[in-house]
Amino acid sequence: MPMLGLLITCLFAQQPTMPPVDQLYVVNAENAVIRCGGDRNYYAFLEAPPQSLIHVKEEMANWGRVPADGPLFSGSWGWLRLASDEPGRFEVVNEQTGTTLDTMPVFAPDLMNPEPTKAWRPVCMLPMDSKVDIVDSTTEILDGKSYHFYKIRLPRQAEGWINMANLRKATSAEAEAWSAVNRGVSRKVVVTEEVDTTPVHTEITVTTAPDGRPSYLARYLKNQNRHGVVDKVVIIEEEPGEEIVINARPVQEKQNDYFIGLEQLYSSVPPTDMSDDLISRLWDAYAIIAEEDVNTDPEAAQMASIRMRQLELATCLLDQQRSINKLESVMDMASRDVRVVQQAIDAPTDYVVIGRLNVSSIFTGNDGRPVMYRVEDPLSGRTLAYIDPEVSLDLPAMIGQWIGVVGPVNFDSRWQVQVIAPQRVDLVAATPY
Q1: Distances in Å between the alpha carbon of 152 and those of 108, 126, 407?
Q2: Which of 128, 149, 422, 426 would bridge with 404, disulfide CB 3.0–4.6 Å?
């Protein structure tokens, strides 16, 4: 594929398109929120009212990664912050518009405390030359240093997280609402150019965003630098209308547009926030540059090799994070167990033993031994006491659960164990394992 075609493909992939229907969900819970990370420890930055339609592109540990597109994010915003002594990173064009002069993070606002100094979690990285809509601005002191804060419309590449327990799958009819809200204006663009005196005709489709702003691809066609002379760009409306011809000026200098496009994609999202599929696709694309541009553009080839290594490290970090999330789930469950035990201990009931009920592998009724249940310490697995199988108590239904036992404790000298004659067994916590 020619270099131009590859770059157009990359840029066109960023267009707001209809997500797969199986990735569309409807909020079916009260007080649902979008958080800036996949855990309750991350603060919320956007409310998700019931019946809201959202796009979940990835699930991890019962949390869904939500891109900032669709009707729910139409009025969302974030913070750009710039140290007062670093004016060269952001340019204010006018009261409503600004441009990034360097890669800059966008911080999610805190719903509970919307002050800009309280926003600490980035939800995306804006690449250089990104246009932003400024809603408001202020200057505050953070950690003893002066910062300019710019309240901006949340970019589409931003992402949040929502608990999947608050969602249900969207129906086909509900998914149509997404398509209606996000449907833009389609135009057919015919680009005619001459490369090495051989006419080359490229026909593509450009989508204008619902707010009327030109798409990434439209801006690319307008601002790109190519080796050769572009004769004209013809824009043909879907409805019959007047043909508009834009004369393009000759450009003599050639740039590695494919590499530039990849760099813009790479810098738009932190690698550790990328999906596995995006990391894989970027790695393959950089591998092409690292192999094929060694002689023609050695600097780009070297940087591509560095990016490949960074993406590999990001993959390792993501795997480690998934392992950490699983361990945190186990720790959270263990913490709940400790709280349950503490509550039972603090309760006024005089339990002679508290623990998890289980069957005994020793007292099974064989070899002349009686049948008994055991109460074990869930952390160490040590047997705390044995229980006679009282017929009036439904002990088998409580196996694996936290119980509290009331009754006299006797030492069985024959078997050398503590045995409880249960008068009452309470289900302290019904936690399946």
Answers
A1: 11, 12, 66
A2: 426
Residue 192 CB partners (closer than 8 Å, separation 6+): 199, 200, 201, 202, 230, 231, 232, 233, 234
Q: From the CB of residue 208, how many other CB atoms can be counted at a distance below 10 Å?
A: 15
Considering only CA atoms, which of 105, 67, 21 is closest in space to residue 274? Answer: 67
CB 132 within 8 A of CB 111: no
Q: 219-243 as b/e, with b when 16 or more CB fall inside 10 Å?
A: ebbeebebebebeebebeeeeeeee
Q: Give backbone dihedrals phi and psi of 396, rounded to 5 degrees, phi first.
A: -55, -30
pLDDT means over runs of 10, the chain (433 residues): 40 57 92 92 93 92 90 91 87 90 92 91 90 93 91 92 94 78 43 44 46 46 43 44 44 62 82 84 87 84 88 86 82 72 64 88 84 86 85 78 88 87 80 47
Q: pTM of the predicted model, to two decimals?
A: 0.43
365 Rama class: left (phi>0) / alpha (psi -120 to 50) / beta: left
Q: What are the φ/ψ torsions at residue 27 (nearest 5 degrees)?
A: -70, 125
Backbone phi and psi for residue 84, each to the nearest 5 degrees, phi listed first: -60, -25
Contact 85, 22 (CB under 8 A): no
C-alpha closest to that of 220 among 199, 236, 206: 206
Q: In what order do the strands lie in the sheet with 77-83?
A: 90-94, 97-100, 131-142, 145-153, 77-83, 104-107, 122-126
What is the Cα–Cα distance from 6 to 3, expressed in whole angstroms?
5
Structure tokens at 132: 């932003």
Tracing tokens 């006679």 back to the chain, one arrives at: 388
Cβ neighbour number for residue 93 with a 10 Å cutoff: 11
Q: Label the pairing between strands 131-142 and 145-153.
A: antiparallel
Please report, for residues 349, 364, 406, 420, the alpha-carbon distance to residue 403 in angstroms, rounded to integers and kept in the order given.
12, 21, 10, 13
Interior angle at CA 3, CA 261 and CA 287, nearest 5 = 70
Task: List the CATH code of the domain at 353-429.
Answer: 2.40.50
DSSP assignment letter at 110: P
Residue in 42, 50, 275 with CA at minimum distance from that of residue 161: 42
Q: Where are the alpha helices (DSSP H) in 59-163?
A: none
